[in-house]
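Need the bound structure for heme C, inputs here:
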Amino acid sequence: MPRAAVLVALALSLGAVPALAQPDGKQLYDLQCSFCHADESQAPSLTGVAGRKIGSGSFAFSDAMKAKGEAGATWTDEELDAFLKEPAAHTPGTTMMMSVTDDANRAAIVAYLKTLK
Ligand code: HEC
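Answer from helper R.:
Posting the output first, comments after.
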């Protein structure tokens, strides 16, 4: 095969390889979330958070977060995604500062949160 054809074939086969490593939601959670969310001394428990009313439970939530839940909002995938992308924009006045700006990482974390039951 001529050299150029080999290079084209190589480029095509590399292009067909799916995105390298898929982000690992559990690993990201362990690195970025668990040091606050491990127990309720600093942050609410995230066990069962998917589908739960926002800001409900025994933790001393900010008024902003409690108000969201009192208005009827629950933690759907969309709410979790928006909150994790920019907590202060989703819930102005929240005391959680950690944001996850990378879309793929956020999706992996949300998928992992749904396994915490
Ligand atoms: C520096 C500590 C800290 C870190 C790190 C942190 N959080 Fe939080 N998180 C909080 C606090 C405090 C609250 C309560 C916020 C409020 O009441 O406004 C909270 C609230 C939440 C809630 C709402 C829970 C509920 O029951 O309504 C979710 C979901 C959440 N965090 C997810 C995450 C995820 C996912 C990560 C990792 C990417 C993370 N948090 C990292 C401190 C933290």
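Comments: The CA atoms of residues 47 and 116 lie 5 Å apart. The helical segments are 3-15, 25-32, 34-37, 63-70, 77-85, 87-90, 103-113.
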